[in-house]
Amino acid sequence: MSSTPDDAAPAPLVPPVTTTQVYQVVIRATPQAVWDALVDPEQTRRYFHRALIEVVGDRIVSHRPDGALWTDGAILELDAPHRLVHEWRSLYDPVSAQEPASRVTWQIDDRGDGTVLLTAVHDHLDGSPHTASSVSGIGWTTVLSGLKTLLETGEPLVP
Amino acid sequence: MEDDDRVFKALADPTRRLLLDTLLAHPGASLTELESAVAAEGVTMTRFGVMKHLKVLTEAGLVVTRRDGRRTLHHLNPVPVQLVHDRWITRFTEGPAQVLADLKHTLEDQP
């Protein structure tokens, strides 16, 4: 029962879901340098939770330092050095691994002043709540902040 | 203005922190939905006032907007806060971590 007339009711908020997560950072680097850092395992291991990420055919896969398969997803769009869209499946966690593939979009925009705006959007998470909560917040923020630090200083945050 | 200055200035206002809290709970909220959230907290503010606060948050990189048809969706971007954390906290912990590492070596090297 509500005592508020419909015409006076405030617009309802969207449900508290994290089915679309957006992360953004400005990096003092060229678009090509950022692109290379996204797909070069020698660089990804220094900022991406130690994962070794590489493009293998039409897939993007990552391994842990001990060789275990960490993530594996089809590449949906590749326009170097501007845009990379790929599936995301967290294989490092048994519950997440059973969930449907989600989607990660990397967008690299040249700001024309020696910096780029890097945007990572992780969406299609509606059917993957476990994956959504495991990557949200610090999962992605440390990746983007770590990438910025690596490209701007040449040194990883965590040696 | 330096990036850090923008972040701290943006965070130094209770209404802007309320907007960030709302976006944390409701990713992708529209301007109208954010207006309602502010009003629900008893803060009286015009639509223009909310827009002004969102502009400060956006310029600090704490809010990122996306288009969905005719709607503009707002998302909290936590990366600038992570960078602040990295700058003061992560580096700060390097010292104690090194002390412990040295202690480990000292103890383990003893006969």
TrEMBL record, chain B:
GO terms for molecular function: DNA binding; DNA-binding transcription factor activity. Pfam families: HTH_20. Keywords: DNA-binding, Transcription, Transcription regulation. Residues 1-96 form the HTH arsR-type domain. The keyword Ribonucleoprotein does not apply. CDD domains: HTH_ARSR. SMART domains: HTH_ARSR (SM00418). This is HTH arsR-type domain-containing protein.
